[in-house]
Design a protein that fits this description.
CATH architecture of the largest domain: 3-Layer(aba) Sandwich
InterPro entries: RNA-bd_AU-1/RNase_E/G, RNase_E/G, S1_domain
Number of strands: 20
Pfam families: RNase_E_G (PF10150)
CATH topology of the largest domain: Aminopeptidase
Shape: globular
Strand order of the largest sheet: 15-16-17-18-20-19
Largest sheet: 6 strands, mixed
Protein name: Ribonuclease E/G
Keywords: Cell inner membrane, Cell membrane, Endonuclease, Hydrolase, Magnesium, Membrane, Metal-binding, Nuclease, RNA-binding
Helix content: 25-40%
Cofactor: Mg(2+)
Radius of gyration: 22 Å
Number of helices: 8
Strand content: 25-35%
Number of domains: 4
Order of helices and strands: EEEEEEEEEEEHEHEHEHHEEEHEHEEH
Structural class: alpha+beta
Length: about 350
């Protein structure tokens, strides 16, 4: 199918959402197991534990005996209650990364208790629209010290819908901010896949949304997800890329196969660079990533890196392209904003 398709359904008995563009799977959300740790976006009340000077942070006692790790320590003392938001997934055996900088996100607005000021998405260019939204934002946040960001989707919405969205997020933020006293508790859960898809995938507007029973099978999404489970990725041009997560890092190996022509290494490497962000996103992989591109002259590395930077531009997950190692590998650091797909499907908890 041509166009932008959002599919809301189930995969292997779990609530799931898929974004398919021109027949290619671009994003995937699958609900974690019920006993999984809180997902990024969840807001919890915790209690500060001991400072760890060597690691530059403090542990936080979370509900059900879980531990968080907070890097913002200024003005904090052990035993103090604190509101935190899960900011990523933990590596195996480590505490959940959390932050005191809370974000209350809806489809149209983000309320920011720790960042005052009214802001409008830079993607909205029309000055008349920006002016209209600014007036709405100022009125909706009158008497509140919290900050507000109006997202780009607000540009196409009626005033009443925008005001309702802001009011809901402001009310939730004010209620949570006032709920500091008490034992560790989950206050706001992370959104499930269908809610997150409606929140984040509707700008630009999809050409079709299918949320009827059997939607994943009907649109072939089941097969597209199944194709992510083996490590080998078939690239345009007949080359391959193997993506294998290990305990320490994600190893990526690019191969030209039977093509031994002088240009094959560069062409295969460029194909891999263009598809790598999508593969990492769909497979839920982050942390340290080491790419062994196909053999090519050093003079061609600049062209490959240019393709990498273009491909990663606009990715939601924070990504640092560290560059080439002395042995000719390319290093990338990517935020762990999702659980690995393999762990989600097996129900393993980090």
């Amino acid at each position: 199918m041509k166009g932008r398709l959002v599919v809301l359904g189930e995969y292997r008995g779990r609530e799931a959402a898929a974004l398919v563009v021109d027949g290619r799977l671009e994003d995937l959300l699958i609900a974690p197991a019920e006993d999984a740790p809180p997902a990024p976006g969840a807001i919890l009340r915790g209690t500060l534990d001991r400072l760890v000077k060597g690691q530059g942070g403090v542990f936080v006692k979370l509900p059900e005996g879980q531990k968080g790790f907070l890097r913002e320590t200024r003005g904090l003392t052990p035993g103090q209650p604190v509101l935190v938001q899960v900011s990523g997934h933990a590596e195996a055996g480590k505490a959940l990364p959390v932050s005191t900088r809370l974000l209350f996100k809806s489809r149209l607005a983000i309320v920011t208790p720790d960042a005052p000021g009214l802001n409008i998405s830079r993607r909205i260019k029309d000055e008349e629209t920006r002016s209209r939204l600014g007036v709405l934002a100022e009125g909706a946040m009158h008497g509140c010290d919290f900050g507000l960001i109006l997202r780009s989707a607000a540009a196409a919405e009626e005033d009443a819908a925008i005001l309702g969205d802001i009011a809901a997020m402001r009310e939730l933020a004010e209620a949570v901010a006032a709920d500091l006293a008490g034992k560790p508790e989950l206050l706001v859960d992370a959104p499930l896949p269908h809610e997150e898809a409606w929140r984040d995938w509707t700008d630009p507007a999809p050409d079709e949304v299918d949320e009827d029973e059997g939607a994943f099978e009907r649109h072939g999404v089941d097969a597209l997800v199944d194709a992510l489970l083996p490590p080998e990725v078939k690239l345009h041009g007949g080359w391959t890329m193997v993506v294998e997560p290990t305990r320490a890092l994600v190893a990526v190996d690019v191969n030209t196969g039977a093509d031994t022509s002088p240009a094959a290494g560069l062409k295969a490497s460029i194909a891999a660079a263009r598809d790598l962000p999508r593969q990492l996103r769909l497979r839920g992989l982050g942390g340290q990533i080491v790419v062994d591109f196909a053999p090519m002259p050093k003079r061609d590395r600049a062209a490959v890196e240019q393709q990498l930077r273009a491909a990663f531009k606009g990715e939601a997950a924070e990504t640092s392209l560290a560059g080439w190692t002395p042995l000719g590998m390319y290093e990338i650091q990517r935020k762990r904003d999702r659980l690995p797909l393999s762990e989600v499907l097996t129900g393993a908890a980090t």
